[in-house]
């Protein structure tokens, strides 16, 4: 089992199990570390109000990722239109 730079335990997936689509989305976003920080805080405190700094960091990360994605899609659309 390889550790992926994390100190918390994660269940090892069996070969025939599919990864959760939400986990895939978060992994591709580059915001997995802040997502795991929210999960870890929630596991520790059992109260989302005490995890607001982690929630805000995750929200900010995802907002930045969405903005980058929109910009990339707009660039592709403009480049595609220029070739026709």
From TrEMBL:
<feature type="domain" description="CHCH">
    <location>
        <begin position="31"/>
        <end position="63"/>
    </location>
</feature>
<dbReference type="InterPro" id="IPR039870">
    <property type="entry name" value="Coa4-like"/>
</dbReference>
<feature type="compositionally biased region" description="Basic and acidic residues">
    <location>
        <begin position="66"/>
        <end position="84"/>
    </location>
</feature>
<protein>
    <submittedName>
        <fullName>Cytochrome c oxidase assembly factor 4 homolog, mitochondrial-like isoform 1</fullName>
    </submittedName>
</protein>
<dbReference type="InterPro" id="IPR010625">
    <property type="entry name" value="CHCH"/>
</dbReference>
<feature type="region of interest" description="Disordered">
    <location>
        <begin position="1"/>
        <end position="21"/>
    </location>
</feature>
<dbReference type="GO" id="GO:0005758">
    <property type="term" value="C:mitochondrial intermembrane space"/>
</dbReference>
<dbReference type="GO" id="GO:0033617">
    <property type="term" value="P:mitochondrial respiratory chain complex IV assembly"/>
</dbReference>
<feature type="region of interest" description="Disordered">
    <location>
        <begin position="65"/>
        <end position="84"/>
    </location>
</feature>
<dbReference type="Pfam" id="PF06747">
    <property type="entry name" value="CHCH"/>
</dbReference>
<keyword id="KW-1015">Disulfide bond</keyword>
